[in-house]
Backbone:
C-alpha cells in the first residue's frame, strides 16, 4: 500500500513543497511541506504585564 517511486533520479526531492514520510500508522511522521509544519508545531501562549 505504500512505497517510493523515483523518476530520473534516486535522491530526496529538493522541492520543499512536497511532503514525504509516513503512511497510515507507520509511526513515521511527515517531513517537508505544509503537512510536516502543521504536524510538528506547538502553540505557546505568553502573557506579559505592562
Residues:
Amino acid at each position: 500500500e505504500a512505497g517510493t517511486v523515483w523518476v530520473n533520479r534516486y535522491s530526496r526531492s529538493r522541492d520543499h513543497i512536497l511532503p514525504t514520510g509516513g503512511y497510515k500508522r507507520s509511526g513515521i511522521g511527515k517531513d517537508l511541506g505544509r503537512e510536516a509544519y502543521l504536524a510538528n508545531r506547538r502553540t505557546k501562549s505568553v502573557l506579559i504585564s505592562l
User: Anything to note?
Assistant: Residues 1-43 form one domain. The helical segments are 33-40.
